[in-house]
């Protein structure tokens, strides 16, 4: 796993290249939490949950290579979570080929995110979700 950072004070992107084998999700959550540590607790929790769901889907339904990136705009405060994987398979909301007790990840993402979507690319797809920060949390 490697981490990259680019950008200016007003906009920033951090990325995390994911291993071929499933990484401990606690490491991915910790990375996202640290990257967004200056946000309010509710915003960090929302973003970490979206990252967790999208990364889990990339391993359950996607293929290598996988990468997660956080794009942040500060004014207004918006976080765009992007998870790329090497599969061009469709994203299905509320349905999973892994069993009846699965398939809620994108339902959760759609409830938290202001908007989300899928961008098909020659090397696979990128599933993205955009979270608008709560103004009351921006006191740190």
Automatic annotation (TrEMBL):
The keyword Transcription does not apply. This is Anti-sigma regulatory factor (Ser/Thr protein kinase). The keyword Transferase applies. Coiled coil: none annotated. Pfam families: HATPase_c_2. Residues 25-129 form the Histidine kinase/HSP90-like ATPase domain. Keywords: Kinase, Serine/threonine-protein kinase, Transferase.
